[in-house]
Design goal:
Distance between the termini: 56 Å
Strand order of the largest sheet: 2-1-11-10-12-13-14-15-16
Largest sheet: 9 strands, mixed
Shape: globular
Number of helices: 17
Mean pLDDT: 92
Number of strands: 27
Helix content: 25-40%
CATH class of the domain at 18-158: Alpha Beta
Radius of gyration: 23 Å
Length: 514
């Protein structure tokens, strides 16, 4: 069977035409309708001149429109690029320019921001979902127009190696990284995750993540693979966890998947108290470490479920897992677990000290890994290395930058980052990138960005030396907030006379963190 993502919705529509594929509160899309809407959008995009391999932006909130946007783009032979709607206009225009996006799919709730994006993105020529934008060079179409297009299967010959989607994330040099996944890697993730967690057409998954975050792939890719139902959680429910607890119960979710922070908020808000959560059989989490303290509290509310620590950079979707339940003896630090099928891992030791401490960089070769970084061949080259696996096969390994310790039974334990990357609320943050943005201000002459951990969450700090003494921390915060998303804005900015440095002249981050 060819590993092509669009085949999944056609197969599920044939098997379960009236089964709900996606729903949000009282609105739903059965598989048959998902196929019809996806075909209509694909045919409309083809009429607009969309070619195989083109990138199409998806700029919208958690909505049902995002579901047929994803599959409509892929059915047209293009790759969807989810764009975080909370990013500053400057950042969004940068993504549009870098990925060569000329068509954006959105909805009317973003009219004001879309107009500003259009004004700052000269290569944009079409916006779908927002009528009457005041830009002479932009063609606009309503969703009613688009969905009235022919529902026939588009005549596009897709191959496994074709681009399916592009995930944009933070980069060390100040330039975002666009991760290119193919139909093969996306399909492989859907297949392996469905098999590992025994997902079927009777399962109901709670999709807590926005489309631009890679955790969303289980809802958008895995569930259509098996014909299951994905509940797209509305934005207000993610802000007010008390309501979210009620939603988990009323929707009778069988699978939950989110960053640990979402589960911690559910616990702290008492949203799980007196709820019937007996249908939840899997609680999956990933994106950052999860404290054993909170896991034990979850056991009190969801005692019958099996839990899974899901690990894998966005570049490889997922590569390891650690499954456990209430009766499993747990160490003080939750392990990453072991590699799942179709995956080879190597722990690389760069020097004797690393080898003696048994701490090395994790290298991964998997059917689920990306093809490349978009438009960054040198970065792609630096992140991959060819090695022979245990069976003598020459494989292309991705250098994760994660330092791990491998136990004798093959279990991996996360130790830290090889570079200065952390995760805040599941989002990757390169501290070097934050420094680069601060230094781009005319008011800042020197800066050092670092992180401190409080309980289970990281907080960003920035120390700055000012060129313009009339500026203050509020001015600096306002400047950086206009360029970076809010999770990359330091929670504390301190003005200093100088930045401490080592004898080699490098910034002494250890002294700052103390």
């Amino acid at each position: 069977m060819k590993r092509i993502l669009t085949h999944n919705i056609y197969r599920s529509a044939e098997k379960y035409p009236s089964q709900v594929a996606f729903n949000q509160l009282d609105k739903s899309i059965p598989y048959e309708q998902l196929v019809n809407y996806s075909n209509a959008l694909a045919n409309f995009l083809l009429e607009l001149g969309t070619d195989k391999g083109d990138r199409v932006g998806i700029f919208m909130n958690r909505s049902l429109e995002s579901t047929y946007s994803v599959y409509g783009v892929m059915c047209a032979g293009a790759a969807y690029v989810p764009i975080d709607s909370n990013l500053p206009v400057y950042r969004i225009s940068e993504i549009i320019a870098d990925c060569g996006i000329s068509i954006v799919l959105s909805n009317s709730s973003y009219r004001s921001k879309i107009e500003r994006i259009c004004h700052n993105s000269p290569q944009l020529r079409v916006v779908i979902g927002v009528d009457g934008i005041d830009e002479n060079t932009i063609l606009t179409y309503s969703w009613n127009e688009v969905l009235s297009a022919p529902k026939t299967i588009p005549s596009v010959n897709l191959s496994e190696d074709d681009m399916a989607y592009v995930m944009c994330t933070s980069g060390t040099t100040g330039k975002q990284k666009a991760i290119v996944h193919t139909h093969y890697s996306g399909f492989s993730y859907a297949k392996l995750s469905a098999e590992l967690y025994d997902v079927s057409h009777v399962d109901v998954l709670g999709n807590h993540s926005q489309l631009h975050y890679d955790i969303s792939t289980m809802g958008y890719l895995t569930m259509p693979y098996v014909g299951g139902r994905t509940v797209i959680i509305p934005e207000p429910y993610t802000i007010f966890p008390k309501n979210l607890g009620q939603l988990i119960e009323s929707e009778e979710l069988t699978i939950w998947y989110s960053v640990p922070l979402a589960l911690i908020q559910l616990i702290k808000s008492e949203a799980l108290v007196d709820r019937d959560l007996s249908r939840l059989r899997w609680v999956l989490f990933g994106g950052e470490p999860f404290s054993i303290k909170y896991i034990k509290l979850l056991f009190e509310f969801i005692p019958e479920a099996t839990y899974s620590n899901v690990y894998g950079p966005a570049e490889v979707n997922q590569c390891t897992y650690f499954n456990f339940n209430k009766s499993t003896p747990l160490p003080s630090i939750l392990p990453l677990g072991r590699a799942w099928p179709e995956t080879s891992i190597v722990v690389s030791y760069e020097d004797q000290i690393e080898k003696e401490s048994q701490v090395g960089e994790l290298l991964v070769a998997s059917s689920t890994q990306m093809r490349a970084y978009w438009n960054q061949p040198e970065l792609t080259k630096s992140k991959f290395i060819s090695l022979h696996d245990k069976n003598g096969m020459l494989l292309r390994y991705y250098r994760t930058g994660d330092m791990v310790r491998e136990h004798a039974d093959g279990t991996l334990v996360f130790v830290g980052r090889a570079d200065r990357q952390i995760k805040i609320r599941g989002y990757r943050v390169e501290m070097n990138e934050v420094e680069n943005v601060l230094l781009s201000s005319n008011a800042v002459s020197e800066t050092a960005v670092y992180a401190k951990k409080h309980e289970d969450t990281w907080s960003l700090y920035a120390d700055v030396v000012l060129k313009d003494k009339s500026q203050n921390t509020s001015d600096i915060t306002k400047f950086i907030a206009g360029i970076l998303p809010n999770y990359m804005v330091p929670s504390t900015i301190r003005i200093r006379d100088s930045i401490p440095r080592t004898s080699a002249g490098k910034i002494d981050y250890k002294a700052l963190i103390k």
